Amino acid sequence: MEIKTIKKIGVLTSGGDSPGMNAAIRAAVRAGFYYDIEMFGIYRGYEGMISNDIEKLDSGHIGHILERGGTFLKSARSDEFRTKEGRQKAFDNLKSHGIDALIVIGGDGSLTGAHLFYKEHGIPAIGLPGTIDNDLSGTDLTIGFDTACNTAIEAIDKIRDTATSHDRLFFVEVMGRDAGFIAINAGIGSAAAAILIPEKKMQIEDLVEKLKARRKRKKTSNIVIVAEGGKSGGAAEIARKVQKFLPYYDTKVTILGHLQRGGAPSSYDRLLASKLGVMAVEGLLAGKYDVMTGIINNKVVYTPIKRAIVDDKAVDEDDFRIAKILST
Ligand code: F6P
Question: Using one digit for the tens of pLDDT, what is the confidence trace for 37-56?
Fold first, then answer.
C-alpha cells in the first residue's frame, strides 16, 4: 500500500464519551507536534466534520486535560454521517482545511464511520477504542472501561452499607448495552450475589433459588448486578419478577446510569490513552490505515477496523465461572 505524506491530522471523539478520551486527544496532539504535523480538532464527532466545526489546535488547547473526564472536543452520534451526502460534505470540509488523515476515538459505531469514510474517500484513518463498554476486539481493554468499573464499584460499596443496615435486596443496573464486561468486573469486585449479563440468559427461577439459598446461609445483604442490555430485562423488571417469590425482602432498585461515564480517568486509562494516542500518530505516519490501535498482552497492536468491530469479544468464561463460585 502506498504511504501518503501526512501534514495535517484531524482528531475527533464520537459516540458515548468515556474517561480517558481527553488523555487520548492530548497524546495524539502532542505526538503530532513532535513529528511536525499540524493538528486539528473536529468538534462533536462526525457532526462537526459535516458542519465544518473544525479548528487548528495549539498546545493551549490540550493543557490540563489529561486528568479530566469527558472530552473537550465534545461528542455526538451523527445520523447524517450515515448518508453518502453527509460523508461528501464532511470530505469537502476536511479538504478545505487540507486535512490528510484522521484519528477517531470512539466505540464500534464511530469506528464503522471511519472505515466507511476511508473506503469511500481514501482519507487514512486510525481508530482508538474509546468506550466504557469494552466491547471491541483488538484490545484487551478499551479507554474508559477501567474507570467506569471503579466508579461502579465505589457506588455499589455505598449501596452495600445501606443494604446491610436494612437487610435489603438490591438490584443495581450498570451500563453495557450489548456487553456484560462492566457487570462482570463490578460484580466480582463488589461481591455481588448474582450477575446478569446480555451474553447469558439466567432463569428467574434459578436466581430466586440462589437468593433463597443465600438467605438460609444468613447472608444479610444481597446485591444483584444487572447489565442494562440483559436478556431477562432491566433491573426494575427483574426486581419485580423476583419480589413475588421473596415477599419477605424489602427490594430496591438503583440504576447507576451515566455517572459511570464521567469522572477523572484512572491510572490505567491515562496510561492506555496516552500510549494509544502516540501510537495512532506513529501508525498513520507508517502507513497503517483503516486500523484500530489497541493493547493486547501489554503490546501495542494494530487491528483492521473491520475485524475490531465485527469479531465478537466474548466475556471471559473463567471470569463468569469465578463470579459464580464467589457468589454461592
Ligand atoms: O456505549 C456506551 C454507553 O454508555 C452504553 O453503555 C450505553 O448503553 C449507551 O452508551 C448510552 O448512550 P446515551 O448516552 O446515548 O444514552
Answer: 999 999 999 999 999 999 99
CB 21 within 8 A of CB 130: yes
CB 135 within 8 A of CB 314: no
Pocket test for ligand 1, best of 47, 105, 132, 145 (most atoms within 8 A of CB): 132
CB 226 within 8 A of CB 234: yes
Residues 88/116, Cβ–Cβ less than 8 Å = no
The pTM score is 0.97
pLDDT < 70 positions in the chain: 1
- Supply the residue whose CA is at minimum distance from atom 15 of ligand 1: 16
| Cβ-based neighbours of 215, under 8 Å, separated by 6 or more | 246
Alpha helices (H) in 102-234, listed in sequence order? 108-121, 145-166, 181-189, 204-216
Render pLDDT for 70-79 as a digit per residue (tens, 0 to 9): 999 999 999 9
Q: How far is the CA of 50 from the centre of ligand 1 (A)?
A: 23
Q: State how far Cα 62 lies from the chain centre.
A: 22
For residue 233, the model assigns a pLDDT of 87
Strands 38-42 and 8-13: parallel
Contact criterion met (CB below 8 Å) for 289 and 123: no
d(CA 198, CA 116): 28
* DSSP classification of residue 72: T
Q: What is the pLDDT of residue 264?
A: 98
100 catalytically annotated: no
> Residue 170 to residues 158, 208, 315, 325: CA-CA distances in angstroms?
12, 13, 24, 20
Q: How confident is the model at residue 3, as a pLDDT?
A: 86
Count the residues in the chain: 328
pLDDT for position 138: 95
